[in-house]
């Protein structure tokens, strides 16, 4: 394998102390160690390099940022004289595609190394704040959902908090604060600024033209990007927050084909993201699309930071978001004790407390089952008489059989109480008019979806609820594909499409199938 891999690079001698790449670099080369030792380093508390691990003969550098343009989490320098094979960054995808057995080992190592960083909170950021503070939660969610290593210092319970705050000259009024990998400090940064400082975003040449721009990195968008990139199309994915979409908020998907023990939405999205980038798709996070010039091709997409980019084909996969409740005090607790996802992060926040889950679909059922393992009790509210009409039977049976979940039919939230944080939740039974109030520290809201299509108004026809009309809906007479809109070369897939089936598998299928129509469209465009 080493001999075959060497054919994609050049053999070089390295000298003790030589820097191979630095933390924060982008698109670093890949190094296979033939002789000697290479140290992988991070920035220590005092700003000096600390050795995380040592690569010896037969081992290689790199983790997931090797296959994208993000800033590297770690650096590398020679600890002894030695020899390496250097594979230029641009040649790594070719090497992995042409040598699949080597590519499998390399990719698995990259994934496991990132998992190690995430598990131990190494080489990433330190977040100092209160875990129930909405701004702390916002920053934590952004890092977690983007697979960026994070260590949370809870100022109320962590013994190291006072020392950490003193070292950085912080007061409680400054929180939340983020200590970056280079040990510089940001005070309550907005998401876009944080992503920029962490090197998680890309800058685009406004004159460069992509074959395909995918708006939204949910299952449908990631599927479309993976198939398009794997078939040689220059592809970019634009995502306002993090990969996964609404599915990324699901604690466990058990009826997705090929995963008999289930998989979390975040894990599924993470794998799909890596897969798309492995084939060369570029990903821009924390950059929502706010508009599109659709009067001529290539289409020009406008991003919220003022950037623009051009694409011959646009795939609308911007998905949908959960609706909010019309209850007094809702906005005060939103983002703090009101959640739209039930992942390990939310589960830890609610440990031992009673919680309320609102909704009767599969997402609500999965959330209730997942939370029931760690919280005190789950109260599940539905407006109808039960779950059978809206939820998969396997979830219905589990919920009915759980002593830790109580279903309340014909009920809606009517009361939210608490001072600094949510303490009590009340709901009213529409049959009797009776209100029940319980001590509960969190509300999980999963009650249907509103499409993310504001950026399309004035360009694409939408149905009465705001979902995108396509050929399959029968309301776009000239569409050449079930997924094409009335604009040639503009397609919609997944939850955002009018009439779509709101399931992960359906979104993935639509994302894969649309690429065949994209090829036909691009061929016709080139022939003009």
Automatic annotation (TrEMBL):
Enumerate the InterPro entries for this protein: cNMP-bd_dom (IPR000595), cNMP-bd_dom_sf (IPR018490), FAD/NAD-bd_sf (IPR036188), FAD/NAD-binding_dom (IPR023753), Ferredoxin-NADP_redctase_2 (IPR050097), RmlC-like_jellyroll (IPR014710)
Q: Which PANTHER family match?
A: THIOREDOXIN REDUCTASE 1-RELATED-RELATED (PTHR48105)
Q: What is this protein called?
A: Thioredoxin reductase
UniProt keyword terms in alphabetical order: Flavoprotein, Oxidoreductase
Q: Which Pfam families match?
A: cNMP_binding, Pyr_redox_2
Q: What is the top-level taxon of the source organism?
A: Bacteria
- Where the record annotates domain Cyclic nucleotide-binding, the positions are 1-113
Transmembrane segments in this chain: where? none
According to the UniProt entry, the coiled-coil residues are none
Among Gene3D superfamilies, the record links this protein to:
FAD/NAD(P)-binding domain (3.50.50.60), Jelly Rolls (2.60.120.10)
The molecular function terms in GO held by this entry are:
oxidoreductase activity
